Amino acid sequence: MSKILVVGARGRAGSAAVAEARGRGHDVLGVARGGGDEAAAGDVLDSERIAELAAGRDAVIAGVYGAGDGFFPRSARALVKGLGKAGVRRLVWVGLASILPTADETLLMDTDGYPRKYRSFFLAHQAALDVFAASDLDWVSLAPAGDFSDLSPRGSYRAGPADAGARISYADFAVALVDEVDHPSRHREAYGVLV
Question: 2-49 pLDDT, tens per residue?
Fold first, then answer.
C-alpha cells in the first residue's frame, strides 16, 4: 500500500485518480482549493501547504487547472519546492496532448487544423514541464493522446503518440496515473495514453 497525495482531487482526472487509488487499497489524501468532501483544503500554488500535506507520502498525483498562462509554471515551481521540502520525489502530472509529438514527430499543436487560439495555454503546459525538467524530482507527465471521452471504462490503456482522434475515459486514464505510482515505467518525460 502506498500513501498518495492527489492535488486537484475535485477535478475529473483527480477524482478518478482518487477513486482508482482507493480501489487498490492505497492510503489517499485528496486536496482541493475549498477542502470538504473528504478532501483537505490546499492550493497548488502554496508550496508550504503542499509540503505539509505531502509529508510522509510516497507519491503525488497532480491534476490542476487555473486561469492565466502563468498558472501552470507557477504550479510546477510550487510543487517542486513543496515536494522537495517534504522529501517526496515521485510526481505524476496530468499533462496535455497538444505538446506531445505525433507519429511523425510533429507536435500535435503544430499539426494542420489544430486550434491555434489556445497556443499560449499549450505553451504554459510546456513551461511547467520545463520547470520539472530543471528539478531533481522523479516526474512523469501523462496526457490523453488525444482527448477525454465518455467511453465506457475498459480498465486498460496503451501508450501512443499524440493523435487528435484518440480517446480515453477518465477512469482508464486514472488507471495509467496510479500505475505510474505503483509500477513507475517512465521517468522525467511526457507521454500519451489511449484505449
Answer: 999 999 999 999 999 999 999 999 999 999 998 777 899 999 999 999
Around Cβ 185, how many Cβ atoms within 10 Å? Answer: 11
DSSP structure class, residue 55: T
What is the value of pTM for the model shown? 0.96
Direct distance between the N- and C-terminal alpha carbons of the chain, in angstroms, rounded to an integer? 27
CA–CA distance, 39 with 123 (Å, rounded to integer): 30
* Collapsed DSSP state (helix, strand, coil) of residue 127: helix
Q: Of all helices (H) and strands (E), which one includes residue 61?
A: strand 59-62
Q: Are 66 and 32 in contact (CB under 8 A)?
A: no
Which string of DSSP letters, residue by residue, matches 166-187? -EE-HHHHHHHHHHHHHS----
Q: Contact 31/6 with Cβ under 8 angstroms?
A: yes
